[in-house]
Automatic annotation (TrEMBL):
<feature type="domain" description="HTH tetR-type">
    <location>
        <begin position="6"/>
        <end position="66"/>
    </location>
</feature>
<protein>
    <submittedName>
        <fullName>TetR/AcrR family transcriptional regulator</fullName>
    </submittedName>
</protein>
<dbReference type="InterPro" id="IPR036271">
    <property type="entry name" value="Tet_transcr_reg_TetR-rel_C_sf"/>
</dbReference>
<dbReference type="InterPro" id="IPR001647">
    <property type="entry name" value="HTH_TetR"/>
</dbReference>
<keyword id="KW-0804">Transcription</keyword>
<dbReference type="InterPro" id="IPR041612">
    <property type="entry name" value="YfiR_C"/>
</dbReference>
<keyword id="KW-0238">DNA-binding</keyword>
<dbReference type="Pfam" id="PF00440">
    <property type="entry name" value="TetR_N"/>
</dbReference>
<feature type="DNA-binding region" description="H-T-H motif">
    <location>
        <begin position="29"/>
        <end position="48"/>
    </location>
</feature>
<dbReference type="Pfam" id="PF17922">
    <property type="entry name" value="TetR_C_17"/>
</dbReference>
<keyword id="KW-0805">Transcription regulation</keyword>
<dbReference type="InterPro" id="IPR009057">
    <property type="entry name" value="Homeodomain-like_sf"/>
</dbReference>
Length: 197
């Protein structure tokens, strides 16, 4: 597919992201995406067969972007502390941003009957994210910036706190102190005293 096709797919995904964040997964139709993008049904189906295909591409792109960010920074020997603080700052903002949360859509998609449990499971997303985060935590331990912790345990704390707040933010108002308290505790666990300053 040429550059024009890739731009169109990107445009479709951006519009679909907004719809999935607003309505969840199950209430978004291909017709909704046509209306949001201004594309004809034929134009949309030239690129995607279903809302499931679009949603999976969105999830894979988001995961790949963060994985690439971590890998590139670790490879460039960016301090682990700097990587961590940058991501936690972003997570604080995202936890409060109920309009751009895909948490409900993720739950609906991965718990739905149409998803092949073997090929597109939430378990795979969890494992991919875990691999990325534990690599960062091990890197920080090796450089002496992070305390010697269990990378897997800290990852679970990060992912389930983050996703939990994002899910709750769709159902109730979240006070600003909640994300800050969570990221503060993660920093306390990981950063050595001299690194906290």
């Amino acid at each position: 597919m040429g550059t024009k096709g890739e731009k169109t797919k990107h445009f479709i995904c951006e519009a679909a992201f907004r719809l999935f964040a607003e309505k969840g997964f199950k209430d978004v139709t291909m017709k909704d995406i046509c209306e949001k993008t201004g594309l004809s049904r034929g134009g949309l189906y030239r690129h995607y067969d279903s809302t499931s295909q679009i949603f999976l591409e969105l999830i894979h792109t988001l995961m790949a972007d963060q994985q690439n960010e971590f890998e590139e920074k670790i490879k460039a020997k960016v301090p682990a502390r700097e990587i961590l603080l940058h991501v936690l700052d972003r997570y604080e903002t995202e936890m409060l941003d109920r309009e751009h949360s895909l948490s409900i859509a993720i739950y609906e998609f991965f718990s739905g009957p149409s998803v092949s449990k073997s090929s597109n499971s939430i378990q795979q997303q969890y494992e991919a994210s875990k691999e990325m985060w534990t690599a960062l935590i091990r890197y920080g331990i090796q450089t002496g910036e992070f305390s010697p912790v269990s990378p897997e345990a800290v990852y679970d704390l990060i992912v389930f706190s983050y996703q939990g707040v994002r899910m709750y933010s769709r159902l109730m108002e979240i006070e600003e102190t909640i994300p800050k308290n969570i990221t503060s505790q993660i920093k306390s666990l990981l950063l050595k005293e001299r690194e906290k300053k």
